[in-house]
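Entry:
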Amino acid sequence: MLTLTDLVGLRLVARVTNDDVRRLADETSTLPEALERIGHHPMDLSEQAAAQCDRCAEFGVEIIPWTDPRYPARLLGIASPPALLFIRGHLPDKALPALGVVGTRSCTIHYGKPVTESLVETWVARSAVIISGLANGIDMVAHDTAVRRRGKTIAVIASGIDRITPIAAQRMADAIVNAGGCIVSEHPCGVAALPPAFPARNRIISGMSNAVVVIESKKRGGALITADFARQQQRPVYAVPGPITSLRSEGCNELIRTRGARLLTSADDVTEVPVGSMQTMMQHSVVDGLDSGTPRHLDELTVLWKCTPSDAMKRLLDLELDGRITRLPGNVFLARVQ
């Protein structure tokens, strides 16, 4: 049976594909045997693989093969899924809905940015994981909004995790990990982002998602490539319409008009994220958390629910109106005996 280090070694061999790695893992039991099967004989491959594992450990990067139970289940269903994922941070719960949110790198301040912020805020409040590509523009707005709203977000990148550029993307990557999300790559540490890697990266964004949302896209661009992958992977594609005079909305309008994208004018249009799912979760959290008869302050519940004080108060008001909690002086709340 090939070890994780053996699999890393195969991943380092030029022209060995993801499908090759999985096939060799099934058919061989040692790295030399696998190399013999494909006619490659790098003398120091074992040392390179060990060095790669050490470098990953140095940068806090975990290597997850396709056989690992933590490997994203949705991704396994696409054509040629990555044999290895390099991950910094924590993959969110597989049961949570996940949305790929993509768009132009040059989003408009007056339209694309506020639309992205509004949509992502709502989806995060409903427990959705936001997946994007850590690029400037819509990607960065989506990640930033998810982090600010204390949600989970995944950045899929086209380089090794130790080669993230520019500085703004490095800072965002740190913020994502610190907020409980993760950075994902199919590339080993030390690999720079080359042009062919970006389209390949986009198949992972769509592959990890329940649906893909395009917010502002020019007639050509990576967001449309992601939408194409989503269709191939049988994921729903949603597009936000834009002004007919805006070059940055030409791609979205075309997706809706001729390429089968679903029109998105509200966060509720995305049926893969159930309306009210977070509210139901919060109701159970409050009651379960207060069953012992211990009152909880608003600030404590805000931390527990990972939301703003305003959002917490709205949820608490709903629970109070339902007769499930009692409000005490000083923004303290107590579950009622059912």
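Residues 45-58 form the longest helix (14 residues).
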